[in-house]
């Protein structure tokens, strides 16, 4: 079982649909696969009006409902969707996500849930009482690692309602970083760091001996134009990656040598990879969305999480 096999249906336990969408602050991407091998289909990448979506854990996310509704409707039409169930990759900064370790987990699902919630609230005491929580045990080692994600019911309803009003139902919710992890087939990997760099945030998933060991998502500060430059964001990303390396060496006594990287930054004067490479002493491998023909490089980067989610 890969990491995504255990986590792809975060808030529901239903089969993964053949169509999926990803929403970010800058765009809406959609993918609809067909055929038994799910290697053919349609895709769409649409830009969003600046400020129409502002991901947050504890504040409203959708700022321009009519614009987003128009974009969703356009994407559905271009994908030729006739089924009503889809998967959705939501912005990672609208959730609280953490990996916790447990020396022992009860076999009873009810007792296991109670223990996980108790540990989560000790780690995050400010969580609201009605928060929606999903968790999965990742790996079979001891101690057990549990991937836990929490979202406000109102936030989840915002995203579900956006699609429901266009006649489609969000059957499962996931994170782009986990979609990317499925492209890597982590069980065949040793140790490394997966970094997913979006326009507004950096998400890091550390993998030790083929299992998820640490996760963190951190927004890029947007208090000035300079702070959103490619160079500044790559410098911030390098700092977080180096901090993660140090953390793994200190806590897990493990050294990592590989960085799996996906960047979804808008094209500009500076090449994100060229900026990042001198700052991070790791073997850098970009994550490619292989196996789906006819994609330009920019489309391949935009659709990689969705291909990992569906293919």
Layout of secondary structure:
Blueprint: H1 3-7, E1 19-23, E2 27-34, E3 40-47, H2 65-79, E4 85-90, E5 96-102, H3 109-123, E6 132-138, E7 144-151, H4 153-164, E8 169-175, H5 176-184, E9 192-197, E10 201-208, E11 211-219, H6 230-252, E12 258-263, H7 272-276, E13 283-286, H8 297-310
Parallel strand pairs: 1-4, 4-8, 9-12, 12-13
Antiparallel strand pairs: 1-2, 2-3, 5-7, 6-7, 9-10, 10-11
What does this protein look like?
This protein is of the alpha/beta class and 311 residues long. It folds into 3 domains: 10-93 and 152-176, ATPase, nucleotide binding domain (Nucleotidyltransferase, domain 5); 95-150; 180-288, ATPase, nucleotide binding domain (Nucleotidyltransferase, domain 5). It contains 8 helices and 13 strands. The strands form 3 sheets. The chain has a 5-stranded mixed beta sheet with strand order 3-2-1-4-8, sandwiched between helices. Strands 11-10-9-12-13 form a 5-stranded mixed beta sheet, with helices on both faces. A hairpin with a 3-residue loop joins β9 (192-197) and β10 (201-208). α5 (176-184) crosses α8 (297-310). The longest helix is centred in the C-terminal third of the chain and has 23 residues, at 230-252. The two termini are 15 Å apart. 41% of the residues are buried. Mean pLDDT is 88; it is low at 1-13.
């Amino acid at each position: 079982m890969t990491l995504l096999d255990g986590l792809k249906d975060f808030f529901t336990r239903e089969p993964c649909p053949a169509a999926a969408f990803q929403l970010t602050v800058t765009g809406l991407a959609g993918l609809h696969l067909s055929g038994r091998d799910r290697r053919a289909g349609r895709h769409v990448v649409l830009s969003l009006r600046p400020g129409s979506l502002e991901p947050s854990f504890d504040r409203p996310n959708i700022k321009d409902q009519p614009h987003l509704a128009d974009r969703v409707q356009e994407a559905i039409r271009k994908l030729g969707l006739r089924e009503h169930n889809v998967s959705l990759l939501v912005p990672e900064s609208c959730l609280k996500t953490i990996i916790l370790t447990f020396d022992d987990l009860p076999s009873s699902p009810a007792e296991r849930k109670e223990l996980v919630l108790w540990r989560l609230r000790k780690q995050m005491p400010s969580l609201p009482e009605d928060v929606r929580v999903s968790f999965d045990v990742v790996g079979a080692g001891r101690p057990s690692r549990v991937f836990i994600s929490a979202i406000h019911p109102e936030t989840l309803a915002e995203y579900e309602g956006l699609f429901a009003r266009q006649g489609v139902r969000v059957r499962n919710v996931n994170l782009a970083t986990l979609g990317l992890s499925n492209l890597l087939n982590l069980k065949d990997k040793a140790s490394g760091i997966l970094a997913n760099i979006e326009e507004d945030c950096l998400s890091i998933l550390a993998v030790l001996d083929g299992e998820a060991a640490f996760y963190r998502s951190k927004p890029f500060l947007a208090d000035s134009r300079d702070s959103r430059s490619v160079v500044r964001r790559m410098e911030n990303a390098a700092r977080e990656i180096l901090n993660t390396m140090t953390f793994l060496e200190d806590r897990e006594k493990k050294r990592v040598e590989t960085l799996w990287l996906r960047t979804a930054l808008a094209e500009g004067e500076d090449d994100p990879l060229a900026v990042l490479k001198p700052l991070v002493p790791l073997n850098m491998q970009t994550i490619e969305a292989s196996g789906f023909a006819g994609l330009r490089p920019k489309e391949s980067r935009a659709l990689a999480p969705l291909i990992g989610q569906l293919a």
